[in-house]
Amino acid sequence: MPAKKYTLLVIPEGSHQVRRFALQRSWLGVAAVLGVFFLVGVGLLGFDYYRINLDRGEFGRLKVENRTQQQELRRLTASLEGLRQELMVLAQNDAKVRVLAKLSKPKTDSLTGVGGPPEEDPATEFSALQRQVDEIMQAIDLRRASQEEIHGILNDERSLLGAKPKGWPTKGWMTSGFGMRKSPFTGRPKRHEGLDIAARTGTPVYTTADGIVSRSETAPGYGKLVVVDHGYGFKTFYAHNSKLHVKVGQRVKRGDKIASVGSTGSSIGSHVHYEVRRNNVPLNPKKYL
Ligand SMILES: [Zn+2]
C-alpha cells in the first residue's frame, strides 16, 4: 500500500539548511497527467513545425518548376508557330499544284494568320496552345487529303495514257481502211469496222495499249481473235491470227506480243484485222496509229 504523503528534501550544497516539501500523492497523479498533456502538445507543435518547413521547401521547388514549365510552354508555343508558318507555305504550294492538276480549290484552311505572343495567364495560354495544335492537325489532314487526290488524278492520267491505243499492232502495210467498202466476199457495200494490215504469216502481233485480255479464241469471221480490254471503255481487236499467245485474264503491256499474223476466219491473204472500240463503238484506228 503506497503512502498518502511524500516528503521531498532539498539540501543545497555547502548549506546546513534543509528545505522540506510535503507532497500529496494525489497531486503527483495530477502532475503526471499534466506532464503527459504537455509532452503531447509539444510533440504536436514540433510535428506541425516540421511539416510547415517541409511545405516551404516544396513550395520553393514548385515555384522553380513552375517557372521552368512556363519557359517550356513559351518555347513550345514558339515552335508551334514555326510549324504553322511552314504548313502555310505547304498549303500555298499545294494550291499551286492543284491549279496545275486542274483541281478545284481545297476546302478553306483553318490556318489563319492569327498567332501573336503567348498569353500571360497559363490557363488561357495552355488552351491557346491546344487550339493551335488542333488547328495544325486539321491542316495536316487537309494537306494529306489533297495530296491523295492529286496523286489519284496523276495515277488516273497515267493509266488513261497507258489505256489509249497507240501505234501499229504489227509491222506491215495497210491494205484496207476503216468505213464503207465493198465486201470482198459478197461484193455488197459493208462497213469495215477496222483496219487491215498485211504482213507475212508468223509476224508478231503486239497489243497497242496496256490492258487485260478479254478474249483469246476462234470467233466466226474473225478467225483466231484476241481482244484486249484497256479500261476507260477502250478495247482493241486483233483478228485472223495464225497463233494466239495470250490467255483470257492475262495482263498485258503495250508492245507485248499477243499473237502471230495469219489468215484464219474470213480472210484472203495473211493480215491483221485491227479494231479500236470505245464503249463498243468502232473508231477509226488510223487516228490511233
Ligand atoms: Zn478487216
Question: How would you characterize this protein structure?
Answer:
- With 289 residues, this protein is an alpha+beta fold.
- The chain folds into 3 domains: 5-72; 73-163, no CATH class; 173-288, Glucose Permease (Domain IIA).
- It has 2 helices and 15 strands.
- It has helices at residues 25-100, 122-163, and strands spanning 5-10, 19-24, 173-176, 179-182, 189-192, 195-198, 204-206, 211-219, 223-231, 234-241, 243-244, 251-252, 257-260, 271-278, 281-283.
- Strands 3, 6, 8, 9, 10, 12, 14 and 15 form an 8-stranded antiparallel sheet that branches. It has a 3-stranded antiparallel sheet with strand order 7-13-11, with no helix packed on it.
- A hairpin with a 6-residue loop joins β4 and β5 (189-192).
- α1 runs parallel beside α2 (122-163).
- The protein binds zinc ion.
- Zinc ion binds at residues 176, 192, 194, 196, 273.
- Zinc ion (ZN) binds at residues 176, 192, 194, 196, 273.
